[in-house]
Design brief:
The chain is an alpha/beta fold. It has helices at residues 6-11, 28-36, 49-63, 79-87, 101-109, 121-129, 152-163, 177-185, 207-215, 243-250, 311-329, and strands spanning 17-19, 41-44, 68-73, 92-96, 113-118, 134-138, 144-145, 168-171, 190-193, 221-224, 237-240, 265-268, 274-276, 288-289. It has two domains: 6-203 and 305-329, Alpha-Beta Barrel (TIM Barrel); 221-297, no CATH class. It has eleven helices and 14 strands. The longest helix is centred in the last third of the chain and has 19 residues, at 311-329. The radius of gyration is 19 Å and the shape is globular.
């Protein structure tokens, strides 16, 4: 059977799998590997600057001729990265956490398509009204920054109904083919998958972070409106439990300015960069220090992630499992 959906034709991909643009760890190597495997790879581009954006796009194109997307977070100044990405001919721009209206016409005028991630039905309608080509509906189970408060299961069909005939991509808690089949049954045309790709060989992730993901169970993630807020305040998120969370919880979850170890440097990167406790930054491979104390973003599907694999193998495995699940449902009787 074929798992191809209408969004595959729209985005010129082979299978309905979109890799999440996980800031800091979703680099060109991962995006290229997912795109080459028939899905849609996404580069986490926020904060890379114009030169970094051009470099990432060049690296993807050296590895594959397939479509890819650039992910940008609207709570930051994205001007440099957006301009450079459009000038370089990025075919898809994925926006998150803000109002896409000021950018929609510019993206379309450059010949690119716009994907907008939302966390509610109202936000989905607003994105549709300004001309988004694809709506990514993010459930509360998702890892990293979480814009809404509704779980994937009830959110997806409501968004599908609200923005039809626009294609909807489901995000949050999807880590295998069973999850992909489930959200397709809800009306989604593809799945936006992040946590599973943290275990990809091509992900720019620190080994300790990756090992924590592989060892985590379904109850090991926590949601917080304000824990890792240094550099990105007022942005709720889901992470793995760690020493930073445990100390903060033991202290009664105090507000910023009164948290244990606040201001301490926990990791260092290239060119003397320092990262402090409670900073909203991903633990990528180039960091050194107390990685365990950093924000270890992960969704509730983390308990389904059990081994490190090439990204292409992850894509193929999810597709094969989804096809088997859907075929098996054909034997059910009403």
């Amino acid at each position: 059977m074929s798992l191809r959906t209408p969004i595959c034709d729209l985005l010129e991909i082979d299978v309905p799998i979109i890799q999440a643009g996980m800031g800091g760890v979703a680099g060109p190597e991962l995006a290229a590997a997912v795109s080459a495997a028939g899905g849609l790879g996404v580069i986490g581009m926020t904060g890379r600057g114009a030169e970094g954006a051009r470099g990432c796009i060049e690296k993807v194109r050296l590895r594959t001729s397939r479509p890819f997307a650039v992910n940008l977070i609207l709570d930051y100044d994205i001007e440099e990265e957006l301009e450079a990405s459009l000038a370089a001919g990025a075919p898809l721009i994925s926006l998150f956490w803000g109002d896409p209206a000021p950018y929609a016409a510019r993206i379309h005028d450059a010949g690119a398509r716009l994907m907008m991630s939302v966390g509610s039905v109202d936000a989905a309608k607003q994105a549709a009204d300004i001309g988004a080509d694809v709506i990514v509906a993010q459930g509360w189970e998702a890892g990293g920054h979480v814009h809404g408060s509704v779980a994937c299961l009830p959110l997806i069909p409501q968004v599908v109904d609200a923005v039809a005939p626009l294609p909807v991509v489901a995000s949050g808690g999807i880590a295998d083919g069973r999850g992909l089949a489930a959200v397709m049954a809800l009306g989604a045309q593809a799945a936006w998958i992040g946590t599973r790709f943290l275990a990809a060989e091509e992900t720019d992730i620190h080994p300790h972070y990756q090992s924590r993901v592989l060892a985590a169970g379904p109850g090991d993630t926590v949601y917080s409106p304000d824990l890792y807020d240094v550099g990105w305040p007022n942005a709720p998120h889901r992470v793995l439990r760690n020493s930073t969370f445990e100390a903060w919880e033991a202290a009664g979850r105090p507000p910023a300015g009164k948290r244990p170890g606040e201001g301490e440097t926990v990791a260092r990167g290239g060119e003397g960069a320092e990262f402090v406790r409670y900073q909203a930054v991903s633990a990528h491979s180039g960091l050194e220090g107390d990685i365990e104390a950093m924000a270890l973003w992960a969704g509730q599907g983390v308990g389904l992630v059990r081994r490190r694999q090439p990204a292409a193998e992850i894509v193929a495995e999810i597709v094969a499992e989804a096809e088997a699940v859907i075929k098996g449902l054909g034997g059910l009787r009403a």
